[in-house]
Amino acid sequence: MKEVAVGDVAIGGGRPLALIAGPCVIESEAVVMETAERLITATTHLGIPLVFKSSYAKANRSSAAYYAGPGLREGLRVLRKVRALGVPVLSDVHALPEVDEAAEVLDVLQLPAHLSMQTELTLALARTGKPVNVKKGQFLAPEDVVSVVAKIESAGNRNILLTERGVSFGYHDLVADMRSLAIMRRTGYPVVFDATHVVRLYGRPSSDASGGTPEFIEPLARAAVAAGCEAVFIETHPRVSEALCDAASMLPLDRLEPLLESLKAIDEVVRPHAAG
Predict the structure, then answer these.
(1) pTM of the model
(2) Which residues of 3-34 are buried (b: 16+ CB within 10 A; e: fewer)?
């Protein structure tokens, strides 16, 4: 299993479980900094490596009226402040004109799930030389991710993370197939499990309780770590009921540390036996 360096955080290569976490989208500098500081405190206490995630823009909101983030410039300004705390940062990159500016700030460039087969964007992200986190589209079988990996490798980039975020089950629901983690690990790259997007119920508003089943975040995260993933991806917010995006599928920040304690315990049992 290849080790991918994300700033000072090492993911894969037999290293302990890492965490990618933060609010779905940047709502304000205050919310981002509060979340980042609390995440740093919790993960430092537990000895869990942290990559901070929050999107400067969301290009796939189901309504133009929904909040989609502050945009590239303002979002990167806020993420620079998080990075100044000593934490690597990650955000989605949705379009070719964003790539160079985003790469100046971000430690990980995320290829969004709905764009995971877009060749030009994939190659542009790869050519930055920065780590690329591929969110596997809900429409992709895990074995088909090798084609995305090959595109990134063709640009000379082997700093790749592969994220499972569920597969479409009918029109609105997603399921988490734990076989996917083992299949994607065969690429030799670290695998991440997104425990929050997988509980979204698509077609329903993400801002109310009908838009997700957050009670499954914790058991699914534990199952994925037991299955050998190298990192977990958890969107979290200090006041979920007030969140402007994905309120129905984020984990309340005050429930994160107890979950991380259990995930660390599982990882310590599993990691010595994980293949590769």
Answers:
(1) 0.96
(2) ebebbebbbbeebebbbbbbbbbbbeeebbeb
Per-residue pLDDT of the chain (276 residues; tens, 9 = 90+): 899 999 999 999 999 999 999 999 999 999 999 999 999 999 999 999 999 999 999 877 667 767 779 999 999 999 999 999 999 999 999 999 999 999 999 999 999 999 999 999 999 999 999 999 999 999 999 999 999 999 999 999 999 999 999 999 988 899 999 999 999 999 999 999 999 999 988 766 556 656 889 999 999 999 999 999 999 999 999 999 999 988 889 999 999 999 999 999 999 999 988 755
* Residue that the structure tokens 């315990």 belong to: 265
- Angle at which helices 217-226 and 256-270 pack, to 10 degrees? 20
Nearest to 1 by CA among 155, 171, 136, 190: 190
Rounded to whole angstroms, the Cα distance separating 225 from 77 reads: 33
CA distance 63 to 81: 30
46: tokens are: 């537990």
